[in-house]
Amino acid sequence: MRQTWRWFGPKDQVSVDDMLQAGVEGVVTALHHVPAGEVWAPAQIERRQREVAVMRDGAPSGLAWEVAESLPVSEDIKKQRGAWRQHIANYKTSLANLADAGIETVCYNFMPVLDWTRTDLAWRLPNGATCMRFDLADFAAFDIHILGRPGAGADFSAAVVAEAGRRAAAMDGAARAALTRNIVFGLPGAAEHLTLDDVRRHLSEYDAISAERLRGHFIAFLEEVVPVAEKLGLRLCCHPDDPPFPLLGLPRVMSTEADYAAMLKAVDSPANGITLCSGSLGARPDNDLPGMMRRLGRRVHFLHLRNVRRESRVIAGSFYEADHLGGDTDMVALIAAVLAEEARRRTEGRADQSIPFRPDHGQDILDDLHRRAQPGYPAIGRLKGLAELRGVITALSHPLVAATGGSATGAALRPT
Ligand code: DNO
Questions:
Q1: C-alpha–C-alpha distance, residues 265 and 273, integer Å
Q2: Are residues 53 and 180 in the same domain?
Q3: Which residues line ligand 1 (CB under 6 A)?
Q4: Residue 191 has pLDDT above 90, yes or no
């Protein structure tokens, strides 16, 4: 398993030096400043590669840009409107430019309007650390009472609607503004301060797009780009919906194992793969992460390893981002399934025997609490997560564990 780390470029409060000292082997980044739909030009890709390759004092970092996350799919492509054909042509050009630069793994998502959604970006835990949280009643308070989306009340249970009403009534202007800011943080253009009317306009454009139609647009996109990726020797990997259930009346098509199985089958190529995000998928009680890895692992090209603690048993429920080995996903079983898949790939002689993963998100601890890094991407909280994951990987890969052939772990480690 290849230890990678997300970096947001020179503006990131967590530096190349920091990640190097955290012990990472490769870098995950993107040209975040290029708007979705436009081409990633060779000179810009090369510049980012140079930035990754040096430490603060100019010494070589020994690190390289290994995974592009995300090469974003434009809203026009998702809606099949406007400039969507040009955007698909541009996407193919960007893929070719990434391949020329030696970057083989490309992550993206197909979530309409939203990328990820939380109601709290710094929720205080009992030990004083903070983490990101999704609270369904707060979200409903936003949807029903702040955004005022027509019909929003019908999307929540009566109990959640009642609680949302109580919470909205207790919020002053500042609390409403703070909740709105947190929720729109994961929307495109959030940095330019989206207004509620902007959000309403984005949403209304999906009025006529059902989940079935969105899936059709997704497959049409894959039919165009996957053959190109395959020829270029690239691995595309789709990130799941986060959280993995519909929000704001928008369709969602990448939330479950069945969604992934359908998209893999629709365009059956090794270049059409998965970003298995245990944090996103794990927010739903019916997603069995170790099982998904065992069943779909041949096409898993990238892993986001993090954990959430679910606060209810329903599919759409509240959760918070727990420690990497805490939370509701059995991380040890998931890692065992990843190692078993890698063992299988070795017997097949596959080139991609070591699957890149990153410690996804982290709680803000110690100096993170003052650093003001990107929400979810602290230095020390992620370092702690990576260190714990590395410990599990090291232990499960040790001959002592491999030798316990009859145990559950030993069985999981044997190629199937
Ligand atoms: C959130 C991330 C997502 C992810 C994209 C991939 O922290 O996991 O923003 O990068 O959805 O396309």
A1: 11
A2: no
A3: 69-70, 107-109, 115-116, 239, 304, 376
A4: no
